[in-house]
Amino acid sequence: MVALVLTGCNTDGKASTASGSSAKTAPAAHDTHGKKAEVAYAGQGETPSCMASELKADLQLQPPRSEQSEKVIATLILTNRSGESCYLPAGWALLGKGGKYNYTTIPATRVSYPGAGRTITLRPGGSAFAGTRWHFEKGCPGGITDGFGVAWHSSWIPLTYHGLDDGYQPPICDSLTLGTLQPTMNGVNFT
User: Fold this and answer.
1) Is 53 helix (H, G, I), strand (E, B) or coil?
2) What is the DSSP string of 92-120?
3) pLDDT tens-digit series, residues 23-48
4) Which of 17, 21, 185, 191 has the most CB atoms in a 10 Å sphere around its CB?
């Protein structure tokens, strides 16, 4: 049996690991990019876990649902950019700040939204999704708009932050909330 390990960080910024079991593939679900992501279950077999070097990370800002400009909703998208299938263990992908070789974890609350995380097999070009949200005040001290990364195994994946059509990128100041990784984008965004 193959064991998976996903490295995250505790609120003090130190690395920790969350273990899961190996998984078996279930019927495929389509993500919004038209590529297939497969939900996996215990007993997966030979598919290796995705390594940081195989993944591309994007944070896509979602249009505000009301005039509450202090509440930000975004979608974290992890895409398999390799030529082979790999799997993501169930759980969360933690965000960091600082830039290449010098990331520190952004303190966050992890919630099982829209439900429990799933082990997901990503075919080449396939993506997995997680909702994120945070609150900010204009000109917040220490607010961040660049130099983001995603904690993965014992490494980091540089993260591209996509703002709205007008280019606006609300800074992450505090109160970051992370949802679980899911095989489709449907329902992952917080309301």
Assistant:
1) helix
2) ---EEES-TT--EEPPEEE---SSS--EE
3) 333 333 333 344 445 554 444 568 99
4) 185
Query: pLDDT, tens digit, for every residue of 69-88?
Result: 678 899 999 999 999 999 99
Domain boundaries, the chain: 4-178
Tokens of 133: 């949200």
Is 78 in contact with 121 (CB distance < 8 Å)? Answer: no
pTM of the model: 0.75
Enter the tokens of residue 26: 């279930």
- What is the DSSP code (8-state) at residue 172? B
Nearest to 38 by CA among 98, 155, 121, 131: 121
What is the sign of the dihedral through the CA atoms of 157, 14, 39 and 72?
negative
